[in-house]
Structure formats: C-alpha cells, structure tokens
C-alpha cells in the first residue's frame, strides 16, 4: 500500500474540515465565552492542540501501513483522529467557565488563566483514564453485541454530525444543496468528475465560489494580529498550579465520566472500523489516544483528542494512510502560524459541510448493514439516546439564546407546555452508556437470552448508582452530570432486570406479527 493515493485527497478534505470546525469552535468559545487573550489562545491552546493532533495522526497512519504490509492488503484505512467534540463543550461549560466565575468572585487577577489551568487539569485527568482504559477495553468489546456498539455511534452521527450541518445546508440552500448534490453524485453514485478531480475538492471549491458570490464569504472583518509563528511550549507550571489550587476534586464529576465516555467511544469506533473490514488492536489504539490527550495538556490545550467517528466513510472515499498524514500536517500548520482566523474568513464552513453530512449518513447506515437483520430493532433503540442528547443540546442552546437561567424553575416552565425537559436532561447524562446498554438488552431479548438481558439491566442499575448515568445538576450556564446515585433509575433498572430474568417462567410462546 502506498503512503498517498487519490482517495486520500478526498479523505483529507473531509477530515481536515471536521478538525477545522472543532478549531473554529474552540476559537469562538475561548475568546467570547472564556475571555482568553490572543496570546493565550494562539500562543498556548492552539499549539498544544497541534502537538496532540500531529502525534495521533502520524501514529494511526503508521499503524495502517504496518497492518497493510503484514496482511498484504492495499485497502487499509487509517483510523481518523481529532479533538473530541463532546469533551470540548463539557470542558468549556462544565469546567473552565465555572472556574472562571469562581475566580472572578474571588477577585483573581487573571480569571481566564485560572479557567485555562482548570481545563488543562481536566484534559490530563481524562487522558490518564483513557490510557488506563486501553488495558481493559478489549474485554468489554468481546461481550458487547455489535448492534449495541454501532447503534450508539449511529445516534451520535445522525444528531451531532448530520442534523446540525443539514440545518445549516437548508439555511444556506444555494451553497448547501449544490455541494450536497456534488457529494451524493460522487460518493453515492460512485462516479467521478472528468480530469479525475476528487469530489471533495470540487465540493469545497464550488461551495467557496458560491459563498463569495452570494455574500456568505468573507466571514466577518479581516483578522489582524493572529498571524505569526507560535511554537508549542510545555506548561507544566500551570498544570502544577491547577493541581495545587484546591479545586481538583471539584472537576472530578466531569473528568471521570468524560474519560470513561472517551474510552467507550473509541472502543465503538474500533468496532466500526472492524465492521468496515479493518481490524485494529484495541490496546495500542486506545493507548495512543490517551498519549495524544496527555500531550495536549502538557503543551497547553485543555481539549482531549480521540479516535474519530467516521472510519467507514473515509474508507469508502478511498482514503488509506495518507489522508491522516495530510490532516496532521495541515492542522499543525494552521495552529502554529495563527492562520486559522484567515481560513475562517475566506472559506466558510458551508463550503464543505456536505462531506460531513455524508459521513454521518454512512455511519448510520453501517449500524444496520453490519449487524444481523433481526437485530434491527436493537439498532433503533440504540439510536434514541444519542438523538435525544442532541435534541437536549438544541434545547439548551435555545434557552441560552433566550436569556434563560438554568434551574428548577426552567423545568417547571417547560413542563407547563408538556415538555418533560427533566427527562431529557436525565437521558443526556451518560447517554453513550444508556444507548449501549439498552441496545444490548434488546439484542438479548430478541435472542431470548433472559439472563444476559437481566445482567445488562443490572449493569445499568450499577452505573446509575455510581452517578455515571442520568443524574444531573444545574450550573450557571449548563446542565452537568452529577456523580451521585439516581435512586429512581436504580430501582427502575432493577425491576427491569427482574422482569427479564423471570420471563422464562412468566411468559409463553407468542404469535408472530
């Protein structure tokens, strides 16, 4: 297998766009929500992100080449890798923003720096959990039905990837529908443009041209002052300051579940890659993931990295190992030179969003295509928590935009309109666990393995008792997971386990419909 093939160009545009979107979100949240100075953002956060992304992309590209040489195959696709979207928002709104508000109330000289240090601590803690999880994750993978692993990813893909960009495409239909047509033509239709132009390149170029013609681009005023060489610098002193600041335990309620979520999410992505034909070793793949996040924290980025969702999509594009190398080089260049703001100014996200929509669609389709046909109901059940979590995110963003205050009164107001937002908040917390467990329970019931279904229900009760699922608390700007028992859910899952376990005695053969 060669290091660079034509499909790597399409894969690069898709993965680089996805990573670029994360960087643009980081840029906006750090500047406007956390109040980071340009020196802190461009001199510490983005260079740290570059180190972590480059380490992971190089590792996974080399890993793909090793497997290709050992197997004699030429179609191995490297695992996609980048900044973890869920952790990004969690660290901003559940760690750094509260830390900043506390520092402001305490009269700290630089609250933004305190917030950044808290984020570094959260990133490091999450990374250590990821690294430790690499040694036990394969056992979890062996006992979990494929439908449970893939359906969880499909729910995330539909909600957090496809729906968000689909809304944007229909808000900007001239660009959105045109680029969507290009992507569907080349990737679903399996044709290519004359001159062997990659479909992803055509979509981005055409989308950018249309964006300039209709006035979507350029985005905002010309950025000034961000360009220049910003080399990564170790920030051990700031990590020590965060560890000795007396607030480490305060962030544990975010660090622990986020670390576990990242391990499970990476595990599901490995299963997705295997279903697409590329089997990767669990331990080394997850360990590299943890190392990348450790590097992020040590060099100034408070945002963990992860094995990305979407391997089947990149593989279907024809990407192999080179797209990972190209992505690492591009993101490193963008982060170290401060050109992120200029790219955002010239090339709007709208130009490439159709590629990301397609990736989400392929991921969702895989959940049905790569599992036994009779397990389709389990896939649908596994979709629901992810879609529910995304809907909850939309509701919270709408509430913020309306100037609402998060608290019990919010729940009462929405209940008056028959909107059970407290149920949505409960579903959102630990939704990755919930999706996997409910899907696994459904598979067990479909196969009439009553003991197995009861054991999965007991696992849900244990997770609820540990506070890793369903329990939530209100923060100044969000709803966060609360590491305390949710006894109502514990009881509910225990009863569910009892109902399933006793089914061999309480039920009889029914009539098929």
Summarize the structure.
By secondary structure, the chain is mainly α. It has helices at 6-33, 38-71, 85-105, 111-133, 137-143, 146-171, 173-188, 199-214, 236-243, 252-275, 282-298, 311-316, 322-337, 340-346, 353-369, 376-401, 408-415, 421-428, 431-446, 450-465, 487-501, 503-506, and strands spanning 81-83, 305-307, 472-475, 478-481. It starts with 5 loop residues before the first helix and ends in a 7-residue tail after the last helix.
Description:
This protein is an all-alpha fold and 513 residues long. It has 2 domains: 6-160 and 231-340, no CATH class; 375-503, no CATH class. It is 70% helix and 3% strand. It has 22 helices and 4 strands. The chain has a two-stranded antiparallel sheet. Strands 3-4 form a two-stranded antiparallel ribbon. Helix 4 (111-133) packs across helix 9 (236-243) and helix 19 (431-446) runs antiparallel to helix 20. It is globular. It starts with 5 loop residues before the first helix and ends in a 7-residue tail after the last helix.
